[in-house]
Amino acid sequence: MHFAARVPVEDSKSVELSEEPVYLCPMRRCLLLVLAATLLSVAGSALGATGKVLKVLPHLMDHQGRIALSPSLYERDAYQAILRQNPEKRGGMRFDVQWKARGAVWQPLVVKVQIRGVAKGDLPKEIVLEKKVEKSKWYSRWTNVELSGEEYRQFGEVTAWKVTLWEGDWPLAEYKSFLW
């Protein structure tokens, strides 16, 4: 906008002055930049959580609930081979799931393990196991989900599995076996 002002001068001539457009001072620009960055960061966190399933370790368990006889990785692998070869020694199956979630969590987090078994008839058996979990502030977390006892015996041999991380009704991440 341009404004004109009349200023009387001694020789009775008037001088017109026009106001230049107003430019934002550097401090005002910095304040607007900080305000815009704050609004964008708040809007980004309002979208919700993001998640990832990093690793899934399916382990057979014996009747005492053990996956290994000692804490050695070599011993664990050897004991898992024994349990695979001898189905009568199996008492269940445990899925160790490493996961992480970032961002704002508005609803409870749940780790779901979907398991498919050997087909009897037209369709394979399928079961879904769920476990509510709490988000860690900085790092990933481990959660174990078990299928054991009479439920495991009735289900039979596991052929494929899929692990998903959910926030309420929204899936955040998934990790599945080769045969899924």
Quick synopsis:
The chain has 180 residues and is of the alpha+beta class. Helix content is 22%, strand content 46%. The radius of gyration is 32 Å and the shape is elongated.
Please describe what this structure looks like.
The strands form three sheets. A four-stranded antiparallel sheet has the order 6-5-8-9, with no helix packed on it. Strand 5 (109-119) and strand 6 (124-133) form a beta hairpin. It folds into two domains: 4-45, no CATH class; 50-176, Immunoglobulin-like, CATH 2.60.40. The protein is α+β, with helices and mostly antiparallel strands. The mean pLDDT is 84. 22% of the residues lie in helices and 46% in strands. The protein has three helices and nine strands; from the N terminus they run ββαβαββββαββ.
